[in-house]
Design goal:
Elements: E1 4-7, E2 10-13, E3 18-24, E4 32-39, E5 46-51, E6 58-60, E7 68-73, E8 78-83, E9 92-100, E10 115-116, E11 120-125
Parallel strand pairs: 2-11
Antiparallel strand pairs: 1-3, 3-8, 4-5, 4-9, 5-6, 7-8, 9-10, 9-11
């Protein structure tokens, strides 16, 4: 099993950037496909970005394409979400998630993921 701890959230202005990190415990990090989800205030959780276990495949929510980049460092057991040109609608609690994977696919459904972090708040002020 893997445990996930997110960091890097905060209060920023419109147009600013943030980089979220998700540190994973365990020795088999490269066997887990990873995803970032978010839950805006009063709304349901939504998929933001996903990355395959090798990092070779990524997938994004349409509204963040070109602004957000997901990446992973399998040596240091960490997945990142670089967020640029932040907008007020990006305000949410951001969660990192992991799913054991035998293939190189990206999962976009929250129900596909086995392990979740505690979340980190991102607030974009106008």
């Amino acid at each position: 099993q893997v445990q996930l701890v997110e960091s890097g959230g905060g209060l920023v202005q419109v147009g600013d950037s943030l980089r979220l990190s998700c540190a994973a415990s365990g020795r088999t990090f490269s066997s887990w496909a990873m995803g970032w989800f978010r839950q805006p205030p009063g709304k349901e959780r939504e998929f933001v970005a996903g990355i395959s276990r090798t990092g070779g495949v990524t997938y994004y929510l349409d509204s963040v394409k070109g602004r957000f980049t997901i990446s992973r460092d399998n040596t240091n057991n960490t997945v990142y979400l670089q967020m640029n040109s932040l907008k007020p609608e990006d305000t949410a609690v951001y969660y990192c998630a992991a799913v054991w994977s035998r293939d190189n696919a990206v999962r976009t459904r929250g129900s596909s993921y086995d392990v979740w972090g505690q979340g980190t708040q991102v607030t974009v002020s106008s």
